[in-house]
């Protein structure tokens, strides 16, 4: 039996979208799945190094790994009127060159932030350390991601929503592309199609059994938040729109790539549809 390791972040939406597999509700013939959880920037760096066959990434990273990985259509997280938050201590006025903590160079929020605040002095750190760094005064501001956008300390306030920055740059009402999954291109095509179908089914099953799965995650201390917060968080980032990419989500990802290209983050202009797994291959092969 082939062992396949899926690398994802430790935040609640990734845990939720994967654990239908971990709990044995969804599987794949002759494949034994296992998982590893790392912070998103470490996963981005691992993807750049080709460490894992299947790995969670920030959408902003994808043009840098397009030759080695194909994007999966499932387990995606977008913001719809919400997203990462630029936070600071209450009452503090930020200077033009304020020092800010970001969760990683290749994250979507980092690219958008750097475009919006070109004079800010950036330091990168684990996303779990950003809130305390702002409270301690190590940095003047930080960009909160994952569950922290719902649970940050009441001594902090929002300077700006990443959603608002996205809307200004995108110029239209598109969802904010944050993260998804990628699969190594060296995997045989028929097998890659099966992996994508299995992961899609896992997210669908998770959504269909949200209450039961959420209860199991909390009982086993697999998430860092309580039940009401988990419920709210999953409706933000592991909702029905996470099951498979839609037309408007494709448009949003392509707009993100266009913005990155125009601001010098990418050497070439990429369209996400050109790099997807060609699922029609299975039908042609079996016809």
TrEMBL record:
Name assigned to this protein: 1,4-dihydroxy-6-naphtoate synthase
Pathway entry: Quinol/quinone metabolism; menaquinone biosynthesis
Keyword vocabulary terms for this entry: Ligase, Lyase, Menaquinone biosynthesis
Classification via CDD domains: PBP2_MqnD_like
Active site, UniProt feature: 146
Catalytic reaction annotation: cyclic dehypoxanthinylfutalosinate = 1,4-dihydroxy-6-naphthoate + dihydroxyacetone
Pfam family, one: VitK2_biosynth
Lyase is among the record's keywords: yes
Top-level lineage group: Bacteria
Family note: Belongs to the MqnA/MqnD family. MqnD subfamily.
GO terms, molecular function: carbon-carbon lyase activity; ligase activity
